[in-house]
Amino acid sequence: MNASSADAHAAYVLRIADTCLILGQRLGEWVGHAPAIEEDLGLANTALDLIGQARLLLSHAGEIEGRGRGEDTLAFLRAEHEYLNLALAEQPNGDFGRTLVRQLLIDAWQMEIYTSLSNSRDQRLAEIAAKAVKEVRYHLRYSSAWVVRLGDGTPESHTRAQRAVDELWPWTVELFAADSIDQAMQQAGVGPDLASLRTAWLASVDAVLAEATLRRPPDVAQQRWGKRGQHGEDLGHLLSEMQYLQRAYPGARW
After folding, report:
1. Domain-embedded: residue 131
2. Would residue 76 count as lying in a domain?
3. Residue 78's CB: how many other CB atoms inside 10 A?
4. Distance CA 3, CA 152 (A)
5. What is the CATH number of the domain that holds 167?
6. Range of 172's domain?
7. Lower CB density within 10 Å: C or N end of the chain?
8. Tens digit of pLDDT for each residue in 192-244?
9. pLDDT at 92
10. How far from 6 is each of 61, 81, 170, 226, CA to CA, in Å?
11. What is the DSSP string of 15-48?
């Protein structure tokens, strides 16, 4: 593998890893603040699963790039523009309904991505994906059930859930918009054809929205692409908290 293809491969894995890492951090913000202890635990467990996936993927990305950067360095010591997570994952939690709508959209995406990646020519990535898909299957059941409960609940919960769908939907365009890195990994047999996954993702999400009596808005893309390092100020605030200990006490260990 030449340098350019190795860089693309590492960046591709980092995109998946960073999405897990940032979404896990977002969900961790709910610990102690969820509307019920059962949901506090549910969101915390999902966050831990995502952080676990991120650790495996970050370690793999570090090995591919060959620059001596391990999972901790990649997680805590990069600048904002070096994170390649989907912009949807960094969107603020908002209320409980907004958090679960965001979770549904990403859970359904991860199901398709991980299922496809379990057949990747990158054997290590395939192993990570095969393990992760089992966790994501549970995450998707959880988020789907809550979106249905909120959407088909009270007038207030329905209004809030619909507002969340309307506000978050534009960020989903990035999920299936392939760029040169995605195309290179598809040609190498590492990653899937993103566009081909959208139909199954849309069917999964539409089924939940229909049961929740929620309307799917039209596709209007946002102008920032997180997987290209284009982020809003929300990620900077998140990183300032997530990275504080390592920045203040370099190399600190428990």
Report:
1. yes
2. yes
3. 17
4. 52
5. 1.20.1260.10
6. 3-221+228-248
7. C
8. 999 999 999 999 999 999 999 999 999 887 778 999 999 999 999 999 999 99
9. 97
10. 10, 20, 31, 21
11. HHHHHHHHHHHHHHTTTTTSSSHHHHHHHHHHHH
